[in-house]
Amino acid sequence: MFAISLGNDADDAIGRDGGERGDGSGHAGQGGHGGRGGDRAELRPLEVWHAEEFLAHMDRARALVDPWIPLASFATDADSARALLLRYAEKQANDTGRLYGIWLDGRLIGGVLFRIFEADSGNCEIGCWLEPAGEGRGLVTRAARKLIDWAVHERGMHRVEWRATSTNTRSIAVARRLGMQRDGVLRQSYLYRGERYDSEVWSVLAPEWRARNA
After folding, report:
1. For residues 165 and 68, is the Cβ–Cβ distance under 8 A?
2. With contact defined as beta carbons under 8 Å apart, do 182 and 201 qualify?
3. By CB neighbour count within 10 A (0-12 exposed, 13-18 middle, 19+ buried), where does 29 fall?
4. Is residue 212 left, alpha or beta, with left meaning phi > 0 and alpha meaning psi from -120 to 50?
5. 44, 82, 163, 171: most buried by Cβ count inside 10 Å?
């Protein structure tokens, strides 16, 4: 995967895309509503040399995504931003995870990731985040579709998972829009600033994804 256009498709133009919030374990970051034509959005790998740009982006997104995505607390200065990107570079080299940025008109405004990627078992988990400037365009849902397509069709993955806190209705709406089914609830499994929240587990299986996108 490299420099992939996130141009509109038919599904993005129908109804609400449900903005997402994420915690990097699949809790999606603040996203947007139905797709908007004419934007120049690309999905590209986030690499170590993007550290300065990534930190500036995370500073813009921090207040919005911090309750849900550990990336915000992990990237607080140049060194920590570089360390985070290096960790994902190592995960990609080991085929255990990947990190991608969403660029809109040449500006980094969000991203998607494989937090977990287990090629041997055929299971993976995706997550996402977005800064306010990217809202209202359906970018996260479009990017998530690209990841699922690649995982299923190119890598032969069987199960793609998504997690969201039960109060995060916008993230759950995206899981539904992706055609996922709710597998269950992990009670009080997500800890944020001393408070615990239930996490919902959603997933789509390869045969379901192929049938939905046939």
Report:
1. yes
2. yes
3. buried
4. alpha
5. 171
Torsion angle of C-alpha atoms 73, 88, 110, 128, degrees rounded to 10? -80
Question: Each residue's pLDDT tens digit in the chain (214 positions)?
Answer: 556 777 654 333 222 233 333 334 444 343 333 344 456 899 999 999 999 999 999 999 998 887 777 788 899 999 999 999 999 999 999 999 999 999 999 999 999 999 999 999 999 999 989 998 888 889 989 999 999 999 999 999 999 999 988 888 878 888 999 999 999 999 999 888 889 999 999 999 999 999 988 8
Q: What is the CA radius of gyration of the chain?
A: 16
- pTM of the predicted model, to two decimals? 0.83
